[in-house]
Design a protein that fits this description.
The complex is a heterodimer of chains A (about 1050) and B (about 350). Helix content of chain A is about 35%, strand content about 20%. With about 1050 residues, chain A is α/β, with parallel strands linked by helices. In chain A, strands 14-13-10-11-12-15-16 form a seven-stranded antiparallel β-sheet, with helices on both faces. In chain A, a hairpin with a 2-residue loop joins strand 30 and strand 31 (about 835-845). In chain A, helix 1 packs across helix 11 (about 315-320), helix 18 packs across helix 19 and helix 22 (about 645-655) crosses helix 23. With about 350 residues, chain B is an alpha/beta fold. Chain B contains nine helices and 23 strands. Chain B has helices at about 1-5, 45, 110-115, 125-135, 160-165, 190-195, 230-240, 250-260, 345-360; strands at about 5-15, 20-25, 30-35, 55-60, 65, 70, 75, 80, 90-95, 95, 105-110, 120-125, 140-145, 170, 175-185, 200-205, 215-220, 245-250, 265-280, 285-300, 305-315, 320-325, 330. The chains are: A alpha/beta (about 1050), B alpha/beta (about 350).
Amino acid sequence: MENKIKKVLLLGSGALKIGEAGEFDYSGTQALKALKEEGIFTILINPNIATVQTSEGMADKIYFLPVTPYFVERIIEKEKPDGLLLAFGGQTALNCGIALHKSGIIEKFGIQVLGTPVESIIETEDREMFSKKLSEIHVKTPKSIAVTGVEKALEAAEIIGFPLIIRAAFTLGGQGSGFCNTNEELIQLANKAFSYSSQILVEESLKGWKEVEYEVVRDRYDNCLTICNMENFDPLGIHTGESIVVAPSQTLTNREYHKLRQLSIKIVKAVGIVGECNVQYALDPESEDYRVIEVNARLSRSSALASKATGYPLAFVAAKLGLGYGLHELKNNITKTTSAFFEPALDYLVVKIPRWDLSKFVGVSRELGSSMKSVGEVMAIGRSFEEAIQKGLRMIGMGMHGFAANKELDIPDVKAALNHPTDSRIFAVAQAFNQDMTVDEVYELTKIDRWFLHKLHNISQLEQELLTYPEPGQLPRGLLLEVKQAGFSDFQIARLLFSNRSIGQKDDEILEIRQFRKKLGIVPYVKQIDTLAAEHPATTNYLYLTYHGSEHDINFEQDGKSVMVLGSGAYRIGSSVEFDWSGVNALQTVQKSGYRSIMVNYNPETVSTDYDVSDRLYFEELTLERILDISELELPKGLIVSTGGQIPNNLAMRLYRQKVPILGTSPLHIDRAENRFKFSEMLDKMGVDQPEWKELSSLEEIIEFTNEVGFPVLVRPSYVLSGAAMNIVSNRDELEHFLNLATQVSKQYPVVVSRFITDAKEIEMDAVADDGKIIAYAISEHIEFAGVHSGDATIMFPPQKVYVETLRRIKKISRLIAEELHISGPFNIQFLAKDNDIKVIECNLRASRSLPFVSKVLKTNFIDIAVRIMLGEKVEKPNKTLFDIDYIGVKASQFSFSRLSKADPVLGVDMASTGEVGCIGDDYYEAILKSMLAVGYRVPEKNILISSGPMRSKTELLQSAFLLIENGYKLFTTKGTHDFFKKNGIKSTMVNWPDIDQAPNAYQMIKERKIDLVINIPKNLSSEELNNDYTIRRAAVDFNVPLITNARLASAFIYAITKYKMSDLSIKSWDEY
Amino acid sequence: MKEKNYRKATLILEDGMHLSGFSFGAEIPAAGEIVFNTAMTGYPESLTDPSYKGQILVLTYPSIGNYGVPGKTVEDNLLAHFESEHIHVNALIISDYSEKYHHWNASKSLAQWLKEEKIPALFGIDTRALTRHIREKGAMLAKIVFDQDIPFYDPNHDNLVSRVSIKEKQVYGHGKNRILLIDCGVKNNIIRYLLKYDTTVIRVPWDYDYSREEYDGLFISNGPGNPEMCQATILNLKKSINEDRPIFGICLGHQLVSLAAGAQTYKLKYGHRSHNQPVLMTGTNQAYLTSQNHGYAVDANNLPNDWEVWFTNLNDGSNEGIKHKSKQILTTQFHPEASSGPTDTAFLFGEFIKNTESWKTR
């Protein structure tokens, strides 16, 4: 194909956030591969430094800069690309592209937007234009009429017909909306809605309708396909990102399936998509009536899922279509022989389940609705719904073992829990069945299609059946096979059979079941995902395991020339794309070193689960049972457990006990670092300091301990990931209050209490060692003082404000620990430093969250070094250290509070960020400004609202306030801050707290967009905050005003904005540093 | 619990392969040619497709029976939700059966329907392994056995068309375009599509001498088995293609027109049975996704001079349709009427009717 496009700029999606996450790393990476294959020079702009797409060799040039019209324009000026890809970086890239189109930049530089034209995108983004367009081609959308009075609302109701949903326009979080069935109800509701807004929308209610999606591709020849359809398990009303989703659809007849398919094609042709598009429908469960709910003219979360569900590389193909190829001119990448113009036939089904982390947020509602709150997702593959859903419910990692055999959840009112969807509704369904509710009763409350409920009911019945057997020896083979086919794990079976034994402390019972069923010949079989349901031979390496089988699709070499890498599972707060980068890099090094690479992971948003990055991909569970299944078949040289975060790390010792070869640091040493007692004892012996701590199991013991060390103290359960349920408490009241929460989350484990050192710096050591000898290391420094979770902190590398003596001591302690634990591979140690006094707070013998950041800033791939060491290669120390680089990297965190209505946007010891960026600058202030702009901060124009919190932070902010005044900013302050500033000669305008109904009022000013930046420092470290402060913070988030809640970060930002203007920021690609 | 509730039976293949499954249809043995279909929807349509006569059908989509079986609503003298009056497969093989079904339009379970129609069916079979086996070894004979063994049966030696074609002429609709439909095992949806236009459809048996019928366009339907078994139809068609009336043939109809024109057919290793067969229209960049169900194909390498390839399969390059260079004779190997499957090529019925209309006003 002739192509005049030589140089293409691809816009990334920036930091991971709720609603825009790893799927765009995957999409962008595929697009870059597709362009590379054509010999096109690629330029990528994406500040998300932990992604695979921003790795060396992916794009020809990478800019770690904010994806905003300003920066993209500067890059266009500099690079003069002739093509632009907007569809691969989520809404961020799309919005940026639309802005550049509207400002005429795209036209000015003569750039061709590849794929769907911007006009078409705009048409799908604008609700009104979109509805109009669809009605022109006789496609139905929900009937909706905007009215400004109750009378008009009644008229609208007449036209549309009940039931109706009433929404107040321009409000947040669904205030003033509700359902009504009669005129009386409508009048009542409309009156309420008008108190929020002058306009209300009267819309037809589609409550209880099925939600179905199609992923469509179209080429420039008007050839069109739907690659995958998906059905939401939950009925309409719950955001598709919040729904359990099944592919392909399960409850649609052929007529329904193809009616919606044909409509999708009609819509996509009418809109003029070139590339990929997603169409969402509501389908009446009682007829073939439908409505089009949404069209997304870009790659999306659903398209990433569809790619993984079918094996059809949507993003890759979309990029090729953007270049002008026809679908019939491309080959199916899986079979290599058949055409890419086809719709995959699945001979399995997949279930996607969202992963929520709502317990990490104070004040957030757990009810699910039309906005997305989940932070990640899993995809489970099976040959029956029961098999797939049970796998999936284990994969989400919420401590559940499937649909059955879970610890009873505390659900006081099961009917209410069924009726009001929350993050744990499916477990309420289990409870309902256990209480003998029928499928029909559950249907009435949930409107989940009865077919799904019947399948879940099957699982519950098998659970009951298992309970009637006192021991495995009496279990009939047929029943055991049936429960395995229904997705029961050996753990679930053990728990149901050995009701008198406590399961899970050790693996004995699980292994007993395993031995028993293997003796009966009940084992899972490996099947390929080949896109054509075995119709044509395929050499695909995309695999899953099922008990609905009688033979393997593949042969196992078992020659010890393969290495298995365990992935990181669902993205969650604290474990995200950084571990995907680590996993992918590990696979690459494994291959470079001459081994076949095997990946095990189940996260559809990742690059590591792309079938072309490993020699074999097992889209499977990361459990002891499944890893044993796979390693017994593959007999690999060994397993890498240190690049996938905490999940594989926790499996290390259990696999080691079953004689599975683990590469790198011995699991015995991993256990010494993970086990608080062993680790502490070791540090004591080595003479390394740590904050005083004790493991305690009663309030009395804790009080006694605080009497010794004094408040504040840090309270947490052991074996934590990302500080789950940790908190700092400053006094006895707080302690008692918090303890209730902490003990609730972990009854099995006692509480660990440690002394909390205030105003201490937090410093991180990321390193790789070879048999205890450090080969490469990077030390980085947090801007915030200790007390902010390291995953939320802003981190600079190399460190800028640390004493040389401190660095020397950190290096020495790290060396000692590496030697003592005979570390071979990556590790991370977190230190506290105060006046050269160094304490160790944590040590993990695995790749850390900050590893991609330091690797990329230092341009030394730590994973590559670590994996080569694990494979037994002799690795030389890299010839460059952090002292050799003359630029700075700053990693800043992305928060998603705007999605989490009512959550208090404060930082604490519990991690709250959903993503991060890393930007590079020639000095510290340039780097911090770039990185903060990349996570959504804006340089304030004029007005800044400050509530400066406790005395410490008031003092911290004093110098910054002077700088702001000097630079012509206008300061607004709440009472305490006003008084303090006045005393220190800083002029500010006092504003009233939100609860004082008198102008100027802080809340009103934020709401009226009169404030450009809010600095609100919480008064104390506890979770209880004064209502007024909370209102200010929440208002800032809700009205999209930048908010800073940490005094140290606020000062750093203020220094940066007073030192640099936007135009001073250098536009330099990674390779230019 | 399945062991308690379902009787076991064995699927035996011609080459000696034995697979054990649970019976959920009629508990009677059956034999035939075993073939697989990779469609993910449409089991009521597939089972009633007369082209499956004599075959044991393996569905590769694992979960079957989900939405039950619709009721026997009649529209235009045709069952609205089925492709013919009865199930035509000799037996059904699946992986996972949904005993409990749900759909607003369902009237019974798949099991109940199969039992009523006296068709045996097995679930609990590794249908992927079975499909791979058929793909590698080719379509072969098979049987389902309960207690007593039965002989294998090769349907390709039988005139299956004579068994599925209607016995008497039947007329549908009263539109101005008169379509003569040669029923070789026609699917109801073909008639439904024709009736969407202003037509009268005259459905005649496969070997019917239609030379004295009054009609504006000739349609030759799909049907089961080896096309060479339909010599009577081929003879009639030889006359028709020498006339100038518009002709449209689908699937077996395509093969019969080809044979009448002097081309050859051959048996494919394991056929095309799916909803995702890609075809390209010759000389264009227009690709279509099609529904297919055939074991035989037309050899495009030696088409007679007056004919040209109209469509080609993008996967294996096999012929998907031919047309006459000067006359209005069109044929497709695929099923524009879908049901089940994608409806992308439904517009071809429109082309045929347009041809018919222009012939009338010639």
